[in-house]
Amino acid sequence: MGNYFQPEIETASREQILAWQNERLVKQVQHVWDNVPYYRKKMEEKGLTPADIQGVDDLKKLPFLTKDDLREAYPYGLLGKPLSDCVRIQSTSGTTGKRVVAFYTQHDIDLWEDCCARAIVAAGGTKDDVCHVSYGYGLFTGGPGLNGGSHKVGCLTLPVSSGNTERQLQFMTDLGSTILCCTPSYAAYLAESIHERGLRDQIKLKAGIFGAEAWSEKMREDIQNSLGIKAYDIYGLTETSGPGVSFECEEQTGMHINEDHFIAEIIDPETGEVLPEGSKGELVFTAITKEAFPLLRYRTRDICVLTRKPCSCGRTHVKMSKPMGRSDDMLIIKGVNVFPSQIEQVLLEQGYPANYQIVVDRVNHSDTLEVMVEMTPENFSDSLAKVTSMEKKLVDALKAMLGIYAKVRLVAPKTIARSEGKAVRIIDKRKI
Amino acid sequence: MVYQISVFLENRAGQFAEITTTLADNGIDMRAISVAETADYGILRLIVDNAEKATSILMQHGYLLSMTPVLVVAVSDEPGGIAPVLATVAEGNIDIEYMYSLFTHAEGKAYIVFRVNETEKFVSLLATHGITPTTAEELGIH
Predict the structure, then answer these.
(1) Which ipTM score applies to this complex?
(2) Are B38 and A383 a contacting pair at CB < 8 A?
(3) Mind listing the domains of chain B with CATH numbers?
């Protein structure tokens, strides 16, 4: 049997969870109807009123929300509370053209931190642990989320944030970090650095909570063996609060979704039809307790499977598989959301043809992004200095747009295949 | 004025050979070659006997190129022969973007190709030292 942060909730009976969901959904739909005109209009277009939603069985009647809605409604269109009641804004990682902002009341922060606390306790965390948070702090939800969860558990929290590996390792050894929270690729990098410096005997880590990007079972094994820890997956997105929407228990066979706060559905991404348990499809979340940013039926675009098979940890909440792909063309590179359309926009602005190819790979457990771009007569010159400065300008513009470094590879004109029909823009070589 | 052809080179094995073979097949004589490169791509700079013909052939083969006027200066083919020219460059505080030499040696002369930031100033300074840039006709090219 596992450890729980909120045992009465985490091991509640299915009937109890369903009762909470029914009651909270009805209340939430009324809240949205009263306070979010953007969504009310969507309901009205379908001829719905709050009276049509009597419980979870009626959820499928409600319209979906997508990232496009969030962009259209930016910044305040989906706000469910007056700004004076909000205490925090977080934003999606890295992007400028496609930024999404989410709002939180103190109540919303509390429930988000509860979710993260559940994840930390499930990973074996107690008040005697030193929780080393190497997720980025700031607009990105990773750092603040786990930081808050760690406080709730009562761990000694080390808000190291990302980067500065020397400092990470110094604190890890000097202050005896026992739980590491970061992206899996950064964990792999830290593991490598620890071995390079011969610090393996000086670290006290016992567990890691790694999320915000896709990682394979092989990568899990590597990290676990390298650091002598248990590595737990955690899932979430800014739109639904941040990390902690679901998390792994010691069984490590999927992530329990915090169903007292979020109702999960799996739909056919083409038709929008709800699929039965065990089907592979797009994950949709309805936040039933959040006040400030109460998204109903938000399409995550992540493809996964839900299962209600009883779990040996004793938790009764539904489990989701690791995301197996996307139903749109979004790439997650180094934990950052990247859309090919953003790269296209930069190329056009910089005077390059929109015929390009993106090559994503994973080298030493770290993602790499390469953009192959065709050279043009206008950008070409006899002077190497001029050509390299054009190239650097492009690299800088991509960095500004994407938030991460993209290597540019200039190729001769007309060498990137023009395919008939849908162009092959993305070559993802990562084996995840 | 002598024209240089600059060709964009991808970092791909055999590309250089393809270009020289294409030119040879069409009877183009290369008079000078220089390559500037980064790890990923390069710029091939060529002086040929018939720039117009070479350009049209390379373009037909899909190469990306540009034409650049450059200065060719004849120097004595002996130790220190280039010194007076470089002294002029220093005197005028002129920036050399790049330079290389022609294969041709004739009548005790070697030929250096210059690409500088201030061409006119360079030419008039050379004149004060009694040096006149070599013309395409003198090199037997066009």
Answers:
(1) 0.85
(2) no
(3) 2-68 (3.30.2130.10), 70-137 (3.30.70.260)
